[in-house]
Structures are given as structure tokens and as C-alpha cells.
Write a structure and sequence with these properties.
Blueprint (H helix, E strand, L loop, with lengths): L2 H21 L4 H12 L9 H6 L1 H16 L4 H4 L3 H26 L3 H12 L3 H10 L6 H29 L11 H29 L3 H22 L3 H15 L5 H24 L5 H28 L5 H6 L9 H11 L10 H28 L1
Helix pairs in contact: 1-2, 1-13, 2-13, 2-17, 4-11, 4-12, 4-13, 6-7, 6-9, 6-14, 7-9, 7-16, 8-9, 8-17, 9-10, 10-11, 10-12, 11-12, 11-13, 14-17, 16-17
Length: 386
């Protein structure tokens, strides 16, 4: 099958799945994912693994758009009164998730290094599904901004901690494979480069939005900046998510026309997210589900409980409305791309045996990406009604 036909199948299947999901009162995200599973290698095989690999640039563009959108929600004037409380929620929720998943798997009998890396991966949250639900069910007030802030911190913490722990596991406490640079220094360098790259991209967007005569013209610059930012991050081995979030944050806080990027992306964001989510479903390998067994159940159960309990405890330390405290945890349950990416990287390291991490993570992604969007929409609706 040629790549044009594959893209067409993904578009139509995702759109049909989303429409059917809305018809039965489910989030369109769930329909996109189910449609992807249906046309993917696990069921009908209309889109092969090779063709999904060829569609990787679309995934990278989508992740960049999602991350930029998260950054564009972090306006200092709005976040000033929310950032401290959002950080409290993140710290409690992320640490409890790490400890509970790691502890549960370690007590279950997994080796220390496996239990620890699963704990780190479990912190990651799927921004794509959450962004899509917010677009479909806009929440009132600042709840969605707090939610996206916690999601951003979850993923950045997971990525950073993962890099540090993998480095220490590979070379002890002193060095990496390529030299004698301490792992913490290598991680700090990567984060610094990502921040500088994001600041440069954000400054470029500020200048472009000021000079562009129309939203249509700025769209080309926005998409180009996203691809360059993500591409350079991948080439240099730095966190692309952090760079794109930084670019969006710089733009929203320093541009005299802060809404231009959001307006310019409005016409293309939905199709990009649709393809991204449908491809995410197509990548899910259902054959791994029976093989995972009890380990997968422990991971899923521990992560689910940790997100709910951690968020409730974290919000208890804040002055958030009661409806926020009840609903924030369930809105943090989706898990997808970041977790899969970290699992792929882990299995490429000699310290882990092949096919020991990915099956568990994929199983969790199947579960959390199917029930997660439903919980997110329920949370958003409950907050709206409060």
C-alpha cells in the first residue's frame, strides 16, 4: 500500500470512529483510538507497521502542536495565582505514583531496576487525549490550565528522571557510555539545550506574529517552527516536549498578539490530533495483552490508584474548589506516547532484556487510552456543572 492510501484510511477511519463515539455519548478520542486499533496490524491490518513508521513525521508534528498548545496556556498573569498550587498537586501525585508503582512491582517480585523504570514511566500522562477532550468539552474557569500544567510537569519530570536513572544504571554513579561526564551533568545539559531551543523558537514566533498580516500567513511559520524545534531536539537527543512547551510559554507571555497562534492552528489542529490519535490506536499490539498477565494488572492498578489518591492529597494542600479536588485525579489517567517512547528507549539498553518492558506499557496504554478520555470528559463536565 502506498503512503497516500494509508493516510487516507487513517483519516477516514479516525473520523468515522470519532463520529460513532459521539453518537453513543463517548469522547471522540475513544472512537479515534478504537478506529486505529481496527485498521492497524492487530485487527484488519489495513495499515502496516512499515507504513506507520513512514508516518512518524505526522506524529512528531502532532506532539509539537500539543506541546506548543500546552505552553500557550501558561500565561504568567493567569498562572501566577495557580502555579504554586499546581506544583503542590504535581509533587504529591508524581511522587506517590513513582513510589506506589515501584513498590507494588518490587514486592510482586520484579528486579529492582525493572520496578524502578516502570515507576518512572508510570508518571507520564498523555497530553494528546487530554487536549482533545478539552477542545471537545471546554471547562469553565482555570481548571483546564491547572490540568495542563500538571500534565506538562508530569511528562517533563518523567523524561528527566528517566534519563538520569538510565544513565546511572548503565554506568554506575560516575559516567556515561561516551565518557566520564556525570549523568546529572548530562541530563542538565540536555534540559538546558531544550530550554534555549524553545526560547529561540518562542522569540521567532513573537517576531513573526507581530509582522504577519494575517493568521493564515502565520500558520506556515508556526508549523515550520514546530517541525524545526522537534527535529533539532530529536537530532540532539534533548527533550522535544520541553522545547515546544517553552516556545509556547515564551510566545504567550511576550507577544502583543497572544491569540494569533491559537487562531491560526484552529483549522489544522483537529485533523492533526485525529491522525495522531488514530495512529496511536493502530500502534497498539493487542497480542501482548494475554502475555503480560499479573505484572500488567499490578502496574495498571497501582498507577490508577496513585493518580487518584495523589491528586486528591495534593489538592487538599490547595485552595482549589471542591469540584477540582474531586476531578483532577481522574483527568490525569490517560497514558500514551511519552510512556511508549520511554519504554522503547529502555528496551534498547543492554541492562534490560528484549520484550520485557514494552508489553506491560502497551497493555497499560490500551487500558488507559480507552478509559482515560471517558474519565477526562467526565471530570471536565463535572467541573463545568459545579
Amino acid at each position: 500500500m502506498n503512503i497516500s492510501l494509508a493516510i487516507g484510511i487513517v483519516f477516514l477511519a479516525g473520523a468515522a470512529g470519532g463520529k460513532l463515539a459521539r453518537y453513543v455519548k463517548l469522547p471522540s478520542v475513544t472512537g479515534n483510538l478504537l478506529a486505529g486499533i481496527l485498521v492497524g496490524p492487530s485487527v484488519m491490518g489495513l495499515v502496516s507497521v512499515e507504513e506507520m513508521y513512514q508516518l512518524a513525521p505526522i506524529n512528531e508534528l502532532a506532539l509539537g502542536v500539543i506541546a506548543l498548545s500546552i505552553g500557550a496556556e501558561l500565561h504568567w498573569g493567569t498562572m501566577r495565582k495557580l502555579a504554586k498550587d499546581a506544583a503542590k498537586v504535581f509533587m504529591v501525585e508524581a511522587l506517590l505514583t513513582l513510589v506506589l508503582v515501584f513498590g507494588s512491582l518490587y514486592l510482586f517480585g520484579l528486579p529492582f531496576r525493572y520496578a524502578l523504570i516502570f515507576g518512572v514511566i508510570s508518571i507520564a500522562t498523555a497530553p494528546g487525549a487530554i487536549i482533545a477532550c478539552i477542545r471537545e468539552t471546554p471547562s469553565k474557569g482555570d481548571f483546564s490550565r491547572v490540568l495542563l500544567s500538571v500534565v506538562a510537569m508530569d511528562n517533563l519530570f518523567s523524561i528527566t528522571l528517566f534519563g538520569i536513572i538510565i544513565s546511572f544504571m548503565q554506568v554506575g554513579l560516575a559516567a556515561t557510555d561516551t565518557g566520564n561526564t556525570p549523568a546529572i551533568v548530562m541530563a542538565s545539559r540536555d534540559i538546558g539545550i531544550a530550554l534555549l531551543l524553545g526560547i529561540g523558537a518562542g522569540v521567532f514566533l513573537v517576531a513573526t506574529s507581530h509582522k504577519a498580516k494575517s493568521d493564515t500567513r502565520i500558520l506556515v511559520s508556526v508549523l515550520g517552527v514546530i517541525l524545526v524545534t522537534v527535529g533539532l531536539s530529536n537530532q540532539w537527543g534533548t527533550p522535544a516536549l520541553l522545547a515546544a512547551i517553552t516556545a509556547g510559554t515564551v510566545y504567550i507571555n511576550f507577544s502583543g498578539k497572544p491569540q494569533r497562534i491559537s487562531r491560526s492552528l484552529m483549522n489544522v489542529e483537529d485533523p492533526i490530533l485525529l491522525v495522531f490519535l488514530t495512529l496511536a490506536g493502530a500502534k497498539l499490539d493487542l497480542s501482548v495483552l494475554p502475555a503480560v498477565g499479573q505484572i500488567g494488572l499490578v502496574y495498571i492498578g497501582a498507577r490508577f490508584v496513585a493518580k487518584l489518591v495523589g491528586s486528591r492529597v495534593g489538592t487538599a494542600l490547595t485552595k482549589f474548589p471542591m469540584s477540582w479536588k474531586r476531578n483532577l485525579g481522574r483527568a490525569l489517567t490517560p497514558q500514551a506516547g511519552v510512556a511508549i517512547g520511554l519504554a522503547i528507549i529502555a528496551e534498547q539498553k543492554s541492562i534490560f532484556a528484549p520484550d520485557t518492558i514494552m508489553p506491560v506499557v502497551l497493555t497499560a496504554v490500551v487500558v488507559f487510552e480507552l478509559i482515560g478520555p471517558i474519565l477526562v470528559r467526565k471530570a471536565l463536565c463535572d467541573v463545568d456543572e459545579a
